[in-house]
Amino acid sequence: MALKHRFSNVSQLIHGHQGNRGSESRSHAFPIYQTSTFRFDTVEQGMEIFAGTAKYDAYSRISSPNHRFLEDSLCVLEDGEAAQVFDSGMTAIKVTLLSLLELGDEVIAHRNLYGGTVRFLKELHKFGIETKFVDARQPTNLLEELTPATKMVFLETPSNPVIDICDFEIIKTVLEQAGRDDILVVVDNTFASPYNQKPLRKRADISIQSLTKYINGFGNATGGAIITSSKIMENIRERYNSSGGMMEPEVAQRIAMNMITLPDRMEKHNRNGHGIAAGFLKNCPLVQKVYYPGLSEHPNNDVARRLMTGFGGMISFELDDSDGSKTKTFLNKLAQDQRDGEGIITLAVSLGCVDTLICCPALSTHYSLPREERLAQGISDNLIRFSAGIENMDDIAYSLERGFQAVK
After folding, report:
1. Rounded to an integer, what distance in angstroms lies between the CA atom of residue 294 and that of residue 120?
2. Once rounded to an integer, what is the mean pLDDT over residues 35-63?
3. CA–CA separation, 317 vs 290, rounded Å?
4. How many other CB atoms sit within 10 Å of the CB of residue 112?
5. What is the average pLDDT value for the chain, to the nearest integer?
6. Contact, 197 vs 308, CB < 8 A?
7. What are 120-166's pLDDT values in tens digits?
8. Cα–Cα dist 17/206, whole Å
9. Which of 103, 190, 200, 372 is deepest in the core (most CB within 10 A)?
10. Is the torsion defined by CA of 382, 274, 189, 172 positive or negative?
């Protein structure tokens, strides 16, 4: 008997919906279901849906065909068994934490995370859940903080914004060797994208995505997702139904369509990221340090090469700037050039868009954190976060150079 052909992830993303012909529609494109509720054929069917034994939709706050279409595509990308989408990445993070942790539990988190995530982890103490922040680049640091109450390890890798690489594969192994296979390892995979890194393949329990970033890629929608095993998702879904924060069906369909181009976009992001980091910023006399996992001098480059198939477009670098004045001048010049049509780099938060974005975390995404805490995370006042788009690399370099000329 001939082996059944296995279609690539790209082909599955494009044609995945065509395997579901249960709809009355014969639309070539997957339709948008603009409805708040769904009819039941019988009372018994409605009972099965609410019991969780029938895979149909009942109410759009909980799920819709557009949500399921996007979730199925995410499972293809992440090698997951189950996915759930939300209106933002932060909602996905909050639902993960509040669904799987209880009064008296502890979380161990890497010391460098997105500012909004840090703030929420600190707020968990209001629910009787404590968070310990450690340098998780060294797995032994986690072991030193373990207690019987520890139930979760929360990581970003690469991290936002200093591009730390945490070896979640080894961390899971070390936890098991310590007799703590009950501890869930959660990875925010946003900076890498599922094209470059698949945490679930490398022993992580849960992968979280801000769909707003690389997966959507065009800066025109926000969303978040949890991707994990069917067993863990059952525990999450028992709680998330009452959480709110559901994505609109139109947004789900837009992200699903944009996601089809993710492989092609990521190839260009990878090339531009490495080219700008290694070929331009490393050689710029006004740059003190470059943070990029694809550089051989990155402290965990060997780990990144094992966990990742590409290194993405996220770079951070420190300007030679003692008082912060050059940092503001540099960014303001780039913003002015973009407005005047003299440059193509946009001063804005967010990342993973087709166009190049830049910001100073200390003045934006991590501004609300105390300065001492930012410095402890490695976030200096002159640290710049750079999201390389898919424009011509020479045009990106030219635009950067105009900014550097303003602070010479």
Report:
1. 30
2. 87
3. 4
4. 27
5. 94
6. yes
7. 999 999 999 999 999 999 999 999 999 999 999 999 999 999 999 99
8. 25
9. 190
10. negative
Which residue ranges make up each domain of the chain? 29-259, 262-405
> For residues 50 and 34, what is the distance between their CA atoms, to the nearest angstrom?
21
Please give the structure tokens belonging to residue 24. 């009355």
Residue 361 exposed, middle or buried by CB count within 10 Å (0-12, 13-18, 19+): buried
Assigned CATH class of 262-405? alpha beta
| Residue 37: other Cβ atoms inside 10 A | 11
Residues 331-381 have pLDDT tens digits of 999 999 999 999 999 999 999 999 999 999 999 999 988 999 999 999 999
* 8 A C-beta contact, residue 256 and residue 70: yes
> What is the pTM for the complete model shown?
0.94
Q: Using DSSP, how many helices (H) and how many strands (E) does the chain show?
A: 14, 12
Domains 29-259 and 262-405 share a fold: no
